[in-house]
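Archive transcription. Copying these from loose printouts into the bound notebook so they stop getting lost. Printout 1 of 2:
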Amino acid sequence: MSSPLLDVWEAAASAPFSPAIGKNTQFTVGFVLLAISLVLTTVFGMNRSLANLPVLGVPASLAFGFGAVYMICAVGVYV
């Protein structure tokens, strides 16, 4: 009798996972995202208004979040 979990396991063995961002480029992607977030945060801080929040604040926080995770993974600390 075959279990569904075993079938999924065997099907996954023939198609290994390959990430969209390779291990060799994680540091570069993380550094660029952190630099972008620093620029956007600086511009947002200089002229802070409610209209600039979706234009500058949200992309800055997303870039910082993803950049921090990529940088953490690039230096060898896995989350």
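Printout 2 of 2:
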Amino acid sequence: MSDIGRQSLTDKAGAAMKPDSQKSNTEHMGDKIKGGMDSMMSSVQPNSEKSTSQQAGDAFSSNSNENQPSMMQKAKNAMGMGDN
């Protein structure tokens, strides 16, 4: 279950596992918008108010806004599925 205004972990995983080359422009745009909104909400919501699963998801996806690639993005890049 996700917190209000946040992407669920299954939505994040689904978007991350589909190769970028197989996504339409609409999917790319949607991923960027959803990811940006999720990152923003992650930053403004204190950890004390996040569900356990959302805290774990934030740790895994590096939603710390330090301009570092997440573990998921690093894995996609290593498999040749990322946009880098």
